[in-house]
Amino acid sequence: MDVWNRLAKITALRFVARSANESGWNGSGDGSVVVAQPNATTITFTETGKWQSDAGQQLNFTNVLRWSLDDSGNAIRLEHLRCGPDNLVYLFDVAPEHDHTWQSTTPHVCRDDLYSAILTLAADQIELRWTIKGPNKDADIHYWYS
């Protein structure tokens, strides 16, 4: 599976966050990704870097994500490890939509908000675009992993 092999080789990320609301999410960031593959069906990303708001505020960030192949090999699950490996936060499963596009099978529900994603394999990177919709959120976060 091309997407799985490419996820295992990621070393860097950059992203742009845009919100229609006055949430303070507008900005961009970049950083490095350390990939671990503890077994054939699991990849973790430990992301570190800097984020800068459009207003000029700069913050360091750290993030840990886990990608897992499902038993059939037809979907990839993404989970957040912000609460540690024993308290995973399920985000969504992505499944193939077209040759180079994977889409979340159902949105992730967080209180009143819905999070969905599209993963696209580009020539030299993987694009992951998050959309967050809710009564107080209207945001788009676009990641480029290389």
Structure overview:
The structure is a single chain. This protein has 146 residues and is mainly beta. The protein has one domain (2-145): Beta Barrel (Lipocalin). It contains one helix and eleven strands; from the N terminus they run H-E-E-E-E-E-E-E-E-E-E-E. A hairpin with a 4-residue loop joins strand 10 and strand 11. A ten-stranded antiparallel β-barrel has the order 1-2-3-4-5-6-7-9-10-11. The radius of gyration is 15 Å and the shape is globular.
Layout of secondary structure:
Layout: H1 2-7, E1 12-19, E2 27-39, E3 42-53, E4 58-69, E5 76-80, E6 89-98, E7 101-104, E8 108-110, E9 113-121, E10 126-133, E11 138-145
Antiparallel strand pairs: 1-2, 1-11, 2-3, 3-4, 4-5, 5-6, 6-7, 7-9, 8-9, 9-10, 10-11
Number of helices: 1
Strands ordered across the widest β-sheet: 1-2-3-4-5-6-7-9-10-11
- Low-pLDDT segments: none
Task: Classify the beta-strand content into a percent band.
Answer: over 45%
Radius of gyration: 15 Å
Helix content: under 10%
The strand count comes to: 11
Give a summary of the structure in a few sentences.
This protein is mainly beta.
Descriptive labels:
globular, Lipocalin, 146 residues, 10-stranded antiparallel beta barrel, 4% helix, mainly beta, 11 strands
